[in-house]
Amino acid sequence: MEMVGRRIMNANYMVNALYRLTGAYKVEQKAREVLKRFTKQIIYSRREELDKEQNVTVKDDEFHRRSLNFLDQILMIRKDDGTGFTDQEVYYHLETIISAASDTTALTVANTLLFLAMYPDIQNKVVSELNEVFFSEAIELNQDTLGQLRYTEQVIKESLRLCPSAPVEARQTSCEITLDGVRIPKDQILVANFYTLHRRHDFWGPDP
């Protein structure tokens, strides 16, 4: 992630031919190889585990759908209908999650706490819900009790909407495509600005 950040801030590094001549490129490639081996091992291991769990499918019920993590859902979709994501696509998605997860949890917690401090009325509702669900020290923290924190979940998701963990994301075109009447050649970098997207009034309505 440090090498990626350096490349973003250095205009010379944006030229692939020049960047490949630098030591930073070698460090990045070595790190990518380590991440690739680690990520693929996670995919293969989890696929084997899911194959053994014959009774667990995405279509079982709402509880199972909510309890399956992102990787499980992708793998189960491929298992159910035979189309879904390819192994390479699964790898790319999981690579993004692992790369982004280095400090996003702490960042999300910090942003959520900041918003709660800015809006005491919302903070009071969250505290009230927590007290209602965990009214005793004997109450366990598990999937069932967490599922009852609906308002708290909405607050966290709203914090993520306003301050996404990954404000922008980039993808490289594998072939020539036409998007909204615009021809985009192969090997072009497309950047999605989630920060701006999450604040568009035509999607989310006016600010409350």
Keywords, separated by commas or semicolons:
single chain, 208 residues, mainly alpha, 3 domains, two-stranded antiparallel ribbon, two-stranded antiparallel sheet, 62% helix, 8% strand
Characterise the protein shown here.
The protein has about 210 residues and is mainly alpha-helical. It folds into three domains: about 1-100, no CATH class; about 105-160, no CATH class; about 165-195, no CATH class. It has helices spanning about 1-10, 15-20, 25-50, 60-65, 70-80, 85-100, 105-120, 120-135, 145, 150-160, 195, 200-205, and strands spanning about 170, 175-180, 180-185, 190-195. A two-stranded antiparallel ribbon has the order 1-4. A two-stranded antiparallel sheet has the order 2-3. Strand 2 (about 175-180) and strand 3 form a beta hairpin. The longest helix has 30 residues, at about 25-50. It starts with a helix and ends with a helix.
Outline of the structure:
Keywords: Endoplasmic reticulum, Heme, Iron, Membrane, Metal-binding, Microsome, Monooxygenase, Oxidoreductase. The protein has about 210 residues and is mainly α. It has helices at about 1-10, 15-20, 25-50, 60-65, 70-80, 85-100, 105-120, 120-135, 145, 150-160, 195, 200-205; strands at about 170, 175-180, 180-185, 190-195.
